[in-house]
Amino acid sequence: MMTAQWLYGITGCLIVALGLRTALLHTLLLQRVIGINIMGAGVFLVLIAVAYRGPGEAPDPVPQALVLTGIVVAVSATALALALARRLAAEPDNG
Amino acid sequence: MIDVISSLLIVSGLGFYLAGSVGLLRLPDLYSRLHALTKADNLGLGLLTAGLILQAQDLFIAIKLTLIWLAVLAASAASAHLIAQHARRRETRT
Amino acid sequence: MNTTAVLVFDILLVLSLLSLAVATLATRDAHRSVILFMAFGLVLALAWGRLMAPDVALAEAAIGAGLSGALLLAAVREQPRQTLTADTNAVHSGNDAGLKVILQSVATLLCVGLAATLSWALAHALQSAPSNALAQAVQENLATSGVSNPVTAVLLNFRAYDTLLELAVLLTAILGIFALGPARPGYRSAGPVFDSLAHWLVPVLILTAGYLLWVGAQAPGGAFQAGAILAAAGVVLQLSGQRTLGLPQERTLHIVIAAGVGMFLLVGLSLLFLGRPFLGYPPAWASALILLIETAAMLAIAATLALAFLGGRPQSPRLNATGEKPAALSTGTLRAAMHPVRSGTDADTNSGYRNSSNEQKQ
Questions:
Q1: 0.90 cut: is pTM over it?
Q2: Cα–Cα distance between C38 and C121 in angstroms, integer?
């Protein structure tokens, strides 16, 4: 277990927890969407930290491909969430 | 020898970045902050790029680095202009 | 040696990531949190570079920081600046203060427990010997996969089915966005400086996207990064007043959006028809098929992300110059007052940037 793996992995776990707290508790919808994105960033940190093999060896490509997929899925989910928020805000019964 | 020169260039580039960040934090109003950010950061990036070009393996990488510097130069100049224009218009409107 | 220097760099990077995350989530102003989120995405791209994941770094800088930031900025622009009116608390304040405090502490405890459990699981997993089975399998089969970049090989050959489903997720998202309402009103021309920047920036972006697509077989790059850069070109076009973003209209646009999933299915089903497994490329054709699928995927991703920035169903270009929709086309619920038209009052600087379709992608 290398120092870099451990360091970035624990950071990823902390960032997941931070994002989840905001996604659960914050008032503003936009902030919650940002919180979910940051949760995703934490998960990606854990995955890439696990894929890291040290400065000499090539890293494991499978988690990196997973993270690449995850980034694209996260941005499309964010786009849909923002469109939903925009439509919600335009409804006449919603202040 | 090349390593020493490139390290000097990179460190001085970082010094300009530091100056730009200090300017961002300490200068009084929007226009002077834009000055500090755009000029100091672009010069810092230029020195950084020069130091990295000395370390590049072949010409193609050096060309790519120069292109990156030129693109950042143009983009930051345009965005500084837009920010200043918007702030100016908001000032003259109120 | 230099391991201490690397450790110091790692600790600094981790601390900046954590402090940026806390700053993004703890601020009360929506604008500020969006800008901090973009900064977080850029520092995260640095972290990916440090952890030897250059494809992910490219994608994070282009999509995670760039396009996500643009989407969030476009969304936050519609909100008035001071969004928190009476309660300046960052957390929901209900009428019963006791229940609120209990809810907050329960949620915080839940998150702390989650972090602890994840860290325990991570430490446990890292302490046992790392399982290299998948990495070895990729390395052994890389020669017959048609590309030499292992991440591209995993994405488009070994786990091609996952990429197909990911493109389907993109398609579903854009269909949802289309269904929710018309697009945001466009921007006015921002002046000669930005227009001249856009004049040469958009062709450079298109070239870069093509280069990334081509080089993704041998070096870090690929369809996703290329698609994101094309979408960035579309965003630049939108910001300079070109309301169609250089995209084709109506039927061609629908074909382009569906092209990612469509090309995958076409290739997969024809291979199935020829007797091979679904998406099992014959080694002689693998690189050509991968390039074909990647091109279609790049166009689909670019169109989808650019339309996501538009925020809704694109209107037909037969509209007046200020971008306002005729009353018959609007959904009736989106108030026009919420969408102030951008960038100043002097519209006489409509520079020589013509509103033609000569910026269309190939």
A1: no
A2: 30
